[in-house]
Structure formats: C-alpha cells, structure tokens
Amino acid sequence: MPGKILIVDDEVHIRMLLEQTLEELEEECGVEILSAQNGEEGLAVIQSEKPDVVFLDIMMPKLNGYEVCQRVKEDPAITDIGIVLLTAKGQEVDRRQGMELGASRYMTKPFDPDEVLRVAKELLHLDAC
Question: What is the C-alpha separation between 115 and 94, in angstroms, rounded?
C-alpha cells in the first residue's frame, strides 16, 4: 500500500508547490496527497486520516508545527507518523527543538523539490517508484 502524505501550511502557494512536487508519487505510485491550512486543521486530518508522512510548517495560526508534532508524538494511535518540519526557521535551536519533539526530518524553506521528493519516498519506503 503506497500510503498518504499530508501537507500542512498556512501559505497556499507553499501547499500548491508541495502538491506539485509530490504529484509524481500520486500518479506513479498511488500515494494519496492531503492538505490542511493551519495546525488545528492539520491535527484533525492527522487524527482522522492517519497519514504516513506529514510535511508540517512551524509558524502557523491556531496550533504551530511544534505543538502539532508534540501532540502526534504523545498519541499512541498516531505516534508512528513521520513528520517533516518544513520551515523558514533555520536556526540550530529551532532544528534541535523539532527533532527533540519527535520530527523525522527538519528542512528549511526555500526547499529543494528533489529533496522533498527523496525524503517522501524514503519515509514511505517507496524504492521502486
């Protein structure tokens, strides 16, 4: 089963760029791409859809990415979801905080679409696609 990817970002153009970047996995591998526009909505989608990978912005309204990551990692029903913090916050202290909260990866914006695709494939274990 190919899996699901959730994109959580309050900036519509970033969500669209990530969707375009990951559509290759959707078309060639059958991966389902979901999106949410803030942390609160993202957490609700995570709880209902249980995606395999979440590309999560940090600076968002309602719940920030750190809060979402922490809640996911504290919930035994969803703790195994791979979280990629994808943010403009590039300081070492920010990266360290994200990793301590349980993120699988920490990537900074602007991001390299090829790197996003590589990380998604790796976390979904899609070697053949």
Answer: 20
CA 66-88-30 angle, 5° bins: 75
* pTM for the predicted model, two decimal places: 0.94
What would the pLDDT profile of 51-105 be if each residue is shown by its tens digit? 999 999 999 989 999 999 999 999 999 999 999 999 887 788 988 999 999 999 9
CA distances from 30 to 4, 40, 45, 80 (A): 9, 27, 19, 21
78/73 Cα distance (integer angstroms):
7
Sheet holding 32-36, edge to edge: 32-36, 4-8, 53-56, 82-87, 105-108
The CA–CA distances, whole Å, from 52 to 1, 8, 32, 33, 34 equal 11, 14, 10, 11, 11
In this structure, the number of other CB atoms found within 10 A of the CB of residue 85 comes to 26
Determine the 3-state secondary structure of 59 from DSSP: coil
Phi, psi for residue 75 in degrees, rounded to 5: -100, 110
